[in-house]
Fold these 4 entries.
Entry 1:
Amino acid sequence: MPQTTQIGRKITLNDIAASCDVSRATVSLVLRGSPLVNKHTRARIEEELRKQGYVYNRAAANLRRRTSSSIALVINDIGNPFFAEFAAGVDEALGNSGFVTLLGSTGESSERQQMVLSSLVEHGPGGIILSPAEGSDSEQVLSAIGTHTPLLLFNREPVGGRPELSHWDLLALDNQNGGRLATEHLIALGHRSIAFFGGHADSSSCRQRRTGYVEAMQAAGLETPTALQIECVPTRTEAAHRCAALFDDNHRPTAAVCYNDAVALGLMLGLRQLGHQPGENFAVTGFDDIAEAALALPSLTTLSTDPRARGRQAAGMILQRMGDPFALASHTVAPVQLVVRASSCPPLSS
Amino acid sequence: MPQTTQIGRKITLNDIAASCDVSRATVSLVLRGSPLVNKHTRARIEEELRKQGYVYNRAAANLRRRTSSSIALVINDIGNPFFAEFAAGVDEALGNSGFVTLLGSTGESSERQQMVLSSLVEHGPGGIILSPAEGSDSEQVLSAIGTHTPLLLFNREPVGGRPELSHWDLLALDNQNGGRLATEHLIALGHRSIAFFGGHADSSSCRQRRTGYVEAMQAAGLETPTALQIECVPTRTEAAHRCAALFDDNHRPTAAVCYNDAVALGLMLGLRQLGHQPGENFAVTGFDDIAEAALALPSLTTLSTDPRARGRQAAGMILQRMGDPFALASHTVAPVQLVVRASSCPPLSS
DNA sequence: GGTTACCTTTGGATCGTTCCAAATTCCCGC
DNA sequence: GCGGGAATTTGGAACGATCCAAAGGTAACC
């Protein structure tokens, strides 16, 4: 049983009504700016409201009106800058529409996600934006939130979704197109032997980005030998260590499309240790456009996902869904944008 | 008038009571785990609750009981990793105590802060954690939240606080001690000519950190000539540019205590361009322990403020205050911890 | 059987707001 | 002065839970 705390005595509609010698109903009309109430009465009441420091009790109103003025936002890790920016965008947009954000952080644990969801749902949010924890499955989620609260999934889909359950909206990034854009950019610069570097095939985002890479290469009639598709844990240090694998056989790549910015930065480090000059004789691209990408030397060409804008978009989507609970589920893929910086140079030979 | 949205028909206590042929009161007792109710009845009711997918309406309960189960968290910028981590800590701790976090982001605008605060207050949070936007003043804040909701200030104090208003709790970082610790560490390594680098004197945190530096230097009988106290905008690039100022005259520092990590990383860049080897013939310390500090080359000695732990602490403080609204305001200064890494080397000569 | 005590259950009022239908006041023309 | 429509105001019943005092049931004991 969760704890709660007493709060101090507050001024209510009744207090104001009594002081003004009118009924509760009239004061309520004033609060809602109804045109029904007489100018003079309104002025008197508004004065009294200010004088007594009245604060509206939205919970009570929501109870009576059977409405909600909050939206729950459940994120796997708020500490991650990508999600923090996303949250900022959500909150900004919701605030502008008069909604308040109920925050929940799951730390990538699906058990905690269950707890957080069922706690939040008790506060009666009008909708939920959820970026599912790894390994959480649809049935769990469904059982926690029931069928009455609209849900928008962000970034991933929970596993094991029986098709009949996926009536949920989805907002995802256009990973595939991003991979394609980066690759096309390198091809346009004149590169012919281009690697795909980093990430793991069991991550859906990595698979999607690599699909875009293969697509662009094939469209240009270029080869994508498996020797040029190098997996590694997506961290800076691992990427630096795996760098040498690029030159293991005779494909001699002159450029690499990296899974994300962390990998790209690590790769640049590794390249230097091997005597290459990223941005001068070897081109590198990333994905995410983290703050460091612009500051690195050379600055990193990457795909901007604009997480803050994604947040605003997610807010818009859930509000729309709340307006029309029976509309078909929308699966939206958000665009990503290529940001060209110094790390993507033309090949030396061209 | 903020917008709100209809939500679907939900199962209530009444529905369950009717199905089980008992009164609302009994069901309510079951929900709250009261020992009064008969084993057998409880089982029947619990079964029914599950079967019908009942979800507790905490808003209604809070209305009747005049309690709150939420806390508002208002942050100047959630996108900033420091605050994002802080928020994560707050949410984690509140969640564990059965409270829910109402999020608000102000983007450093005091007007927006007013709007956010008054909107949040209408949802009846049991308390508010506020990291004030720059330039917001106490009277504003007071008028937005009234005197009934406990407030905890984090990180800064709003300006213009008349003393009789500051009955608010405060959680701040021990900037001064941090500056002292870093400086003492360098002194212990054998450095004698140590600079304080970066930040602006009109920032209170910078002043406090520098005070700690001066304190340590004087305690060791060392000089702190103004030529070794170099101000600069606290960004990486500015720090790199100002680096040369360290060597403008004949003090020849062998180490620098930096205002924060961004400045320290920039300084290391600048040092290299001037032919020095940070971590080998010049020692550098930072402040904040951002994620990059551990990854930089050389890794950065810095002061960890552990924002996530600060968040947990803030949550604890506001809960405590809610438990005892009339206790004296507590002004807590959170410890910072020296994290020694590779960038703080001994001087070459020693 | 009646009294006591204990274990369970319950009706009805209440929290602060909104809804609704009906009541009251106002103003105007005849 | 009065009928009538418009403009205002209003009492009381909701919303979904909790509290409280009191009632019902059971069992034991004299």
Note: Chain B touches chain A through 74 residues (CB under 8 Å).
Entry 2:
Amino acid sequence: MPITKTEQFRAKEIRLSRWAKALAHPARVAILRTLAKRNACVCGEIVEVLPIAQATVSQHLKELKEAGLVKGTIEGPSSCYCLDNEAITEMAGDLNVLFDELAGGCAEASCSTKGKSK
Amino acid sequence: MPITKTEQFRAKEIRLSRWAKALAHPARVAILRTLAKRNACVCGEIVEVLPIAQATVSQHLKELKEAGLVKGTIEGPSSCYCLDNEAITEMAGDLNVLFDELAGGCAEASCSTKGKSK
DNA sequence: TATCTTTATCGTAAAGATACGATAAAGGAA
DNA sequence: TTCCTTTATCGTATCTTTACGATAAAGATA
């Protein structure tokens, strides 16, 4: 992205793509699912489950925190992570609005019957 | 991704992250929404709407085609794109399964009450 | 045939994402 | 205090994404 054109898109689309980007790596999806299953858990438990190094897990957790999907609190020497329920509901809502917009988008025949356009 | 560890995650998580990656750029969200609004349209119409160059739009369209969300057919000198309704339904379904799994994931108090773990 | 229009692809540059080892930071245990 | 455990961060390497100009490809048009 040479000069980052992101700002020139609509806020709605930027918002949606940000949610999507948070989910755009299997490790982050796995982290979220793990947190959901255990209700909450320390970083170490996630590291054990995933096939990646501790530093990498920590980095993915940071991204999820920045996306707002996960909250982390310090628990003595370790730290406890859990899902942000409101954010997840918000994300699900936003994406479902998109899915509704896209539903029934193509009439299948609309392509082959158009010879001209513009 | 030095040696791409993607294969080591579960198929479910890889699948979800692939859907998400397709939506992880505002241009691609905008393209999908444009296609939905117009039912189908030629590449040139999309280029006019978006704040990016024609080559870049073509590249995003290619990614959407590879993700399976969009179908393209040649229409004389131009080409006609439209949404793949089944794929979009599938994507919406997959992601909503995830959202359900994540719903109610954190009891809020679960962090501060845990002193030990592992 | 020569030319125009439209789109895909190539080549390339720059930014971002991903991964990991090493190390710092901070609380708990001895 | 000293050491251990746990996690975040730094530094770095590499791959991927994004973007664009230039050009090729292919049908329409004159």
Note: The two ends of chain B are 30 Å apart (CA to CA).
Entry 3:
Amino acid sequence: MAVNSDVPRRSMAGRALALLGTFDGGHPRLKLTELARRADLPLPTVHRLAAELVSWGALERDATGYYSIGLRLWEAATLAPVAGRLREIALPFMQDLYETTRENIHLAVHDGFDALYVEKLSGHRSVPVVSRIGARLPMHSTGVGKALLARADAAFVRAYAERPLPRFTRYTITEHARLLRELRATAERGYALTNEEMTLGTCSVAVAIPSDGYTPAGALGIVVRSVRTDLHRLVPDLRAAAEAIGRKLDEAVDDTQPGRA
Amino acid sequence: MAVNSDVPRRSMAGRALALLGTFDGGHPRLKLTELARRADLPLPTVHRLAAELVSWGALERDATGYYSIGLRLWEAATLAPVAGRLREIALPFMQDLYETTRENIHLAVHDGFDALYVEKLSGHRSVPVVSRIGARLPMHSTGVGKALLARADAAFVRAYAERPLPRFTRYTITEHARLLRELRATAERGYALTNEEMTLGTCSVAVAIPSDGYTPAGALGIVVRSVRTDLHRLVPDLRAAAEAIGRKLDEAVDDTQPGRA
DNA sequence: GGAAGGACTTCCACAGGGTGGAAGTGGTGG
DNA sequence: CCACCACTTCCACCCTGTGGAAGTCCTTCC
């Protein structure tokens, strides 16, 4: 018997989703037992349910018994607005930025208290970074995060700053007052900067994508080696790209939706 | 009462998945009624189930009542091997190809009777193409498709060629014997070519990614305007990229999996 | 070689979550 | 003002999922 006396007894669909939810960046492949333990479900239940998910294509199971996310689920997920419309529109502009910089180009959206990375371009010559498509990173220590936060409404920013701000390097901003000051400066300047706040040796510029019709709001950023001192020179291109993306998004919204997004 | 006397009574999880399956490239957003009709489920059932999916984040519902695929499902799907490992490894090489050509760079895998597009890079100057990340296109009319098909085992190729081959342009190969001949030529040549077989005005080169440890098998392709006649010149770079990707995939497989993929 | 342990699979009688027709609500357009 | 349509809520019946227990099949260790 599970000890979920407080949990209001998950439904079948809820259990199926719980199984999907057990996968994360550190655990993209799981064995049956791990799946059951992480989802806190009895083993036979997981066994039966997982088999059904596999038969539909929501999960895959390889010869060694490991489960991973299935191809068909991935395929369905490409239809999410964030992956479809936003990415599709942004990509050519991100390519342009990549060509001129050959550095990591990030596209992230605001979700909960995190910046969720929707697209990332990088080449062999780019600095290695911790981001990954589908990854969540904090907003106070990343370029795109600060750009998003600087645009968020005051109540949200206050809520964000009142939580403990995890430290990643000795340059990470962890004092609430300093974060608020930084965000004010970002808003006035019109773009966000970071300097070794997430990873030593890298710094970044980012701007918010000015689209009023589209949610969740996005931001575009570039991460470079900190030895490069010409971060500011990237701003005009970055801003032009963000504005062009925003314009296209608004057009696309008008096309498909009579109401708001 | 639904008329599914032949369908073996779908389970709850099956119904939830059926809802996700109602979305496709032509219908990325659906209203409740459409969802119910397309999934062939009673409206109250869909209503209840959809609400549960929304609360988890597998679906989203906007102010106008339209459902679409949810952010959390998209996030989970980024953990699929095809999106995670394959894409991540291939991307820098695809970037290199993009820089030298500024044309559409495609990465596709073999799934069922289709080429499933896993990644696509394109800029403003690239020819417009019908592909989309997550899209499925036939294997006999696309570069990546032919590259995959030329490597598939004989039984599969026979099964493929025995089905009717849909025609897209007057250049599409629709005769079975000719397709088999073409595939033989592709295998000998070591790369696939198409010439206005999917879309008038575009042609393409593609090569299979030579990885023995990794399934599903992938292919890398470039689509350019047909006025460009130097398609063959792209082959060395393309092949080098595919080989490098294959090598990295095999390393990655060794790292994480004692057995086979 | 054999015993112990662990991971996975199968079984089945019980029970509580899901079902879906029907009725209610709200908005729209004629 | 009414008719219509899309969505939402309700509830008593009953079928589907439940999960402990037992079975199978490796792997490891002595």
Note: Strands of chain A lie at 29-30, 59-61, 67-69, 104-111, 114-121, 136-138, 192-195, 202-208, 218-225.
Entry 4:
Amino acid sequence: MRAAILQSARVLLTHNGIEHLSIRKVAQQIDYSPAIVYHYFNNKEEIIDALLEEDYEKIVEVVKTTAEYYSKKDFKNGIVAYIRLVTDMGAFYKNVMISDLPRILQRTSVLHKGAAQERPALEALCSDLRVCPAFANQSDADIELAAQIIWSTLFGLATRIIIEDVDKDQKERLAEQAAELILKMFR
Amino acid sequence: MRAAILQSARVLLTHNGIEHLSIRKVAQQIDYSPAIVYHYFNNKEEIIDALLEEDYEKIVEVVKTTAEYYSKKDFKNGIVAYIRLVTDMGAFYKNVMISDLPRILQRTSVLHKGAAQERPALEALCSDLRVCPAFANQSDADIELAAQIIWSTLFGLATRIIIEDVDKDQKERLAEQAAELILKMFR
DNA sequence: GATTATATTAAACACTGTTTAATAAAAAGG
DNA sequence: CCTTTTTATTAAACAGTGTTTAATATAATC
């Protein structure tokens, strides 16, 4: 039942957008009364949180994929792959990270969850920076700052690509040039 | 009357957040019936659009301030000032650019308006890049790509600072290091 | 002063999230 | 097998939302 509710909610979320995701529609789609939802969830917020949880797991997969490139010191393709994967995944970046930022802003629990999920990626980035000549003799704090800035660049680029609906060709070009420019920071 | 409605809406938006901005509350606050709103606006969307319009004008001021630094070729302080100004202005970045991104995503008119407002800033950035040695012999398209990436970096950084509620000290450090890293791209 | 245009509202419609109390179904215990 | 207890489900109501309609009051114009 819980799974059916979540699945119905996901369909409404991805097809009609978050503003059309209503508990009554969720219930109608699975042929139950609206009140049933409150037997499996405390409120609408919890349903969205559950969907968020699923999406966060997806982005961890993306991070793993890019981490493979980084471990081979192929930073450029790592960055390009990150932009490609992230802008292609409808769920997290489009419906959650962007469409639902207001909720994330307000509900610190979800935010911290997200930060915790991002943490491994940031730390992987830090250890990559540490072996770069440009950051050889810098403190851990400085390296983490640098990692955060790089992360911000990728986040901002991905967000803009999605918002402005950049086409595939320009997306590739943006990603590649971004990768080259970011690598310049390390020299 | 129109102004009174907008002012009431602004108060509710900034104090209670966009999810508590309701036409009935707007009307109640100015001691009128809810129906009056529909004599001056077609729908709730138009009220928010009007508030957005005001906010876009504010960000143009920010761009003008940073442009002064750029014209003196003081890129570092320009970047630092941008981050400082943008993360300090509650209205645009917090309530609009972030809290209301879903709306911006859906309503292309507002998006295009925003893009048009950003345009002068982007072009100013392009002309700054053109005089940099690193971009001397590159095409206009490549320079615009670079400008977009730099813009993305600043957007992403500002968004993260606001979302994660970074304190003033670390904000300054982030901004300064971001500025230095961005400048490295130009060499 | 009569007429036209503008401003304002009460009331209704169709939604929304959520709660409550009642009922149906299933599980557990004797 | 029957009773009791727990779980699942719902109809109905509450309070809120955006919006429309038709009626009324006010202001402007002729």
Note: Chain B has ten helices and no strands.
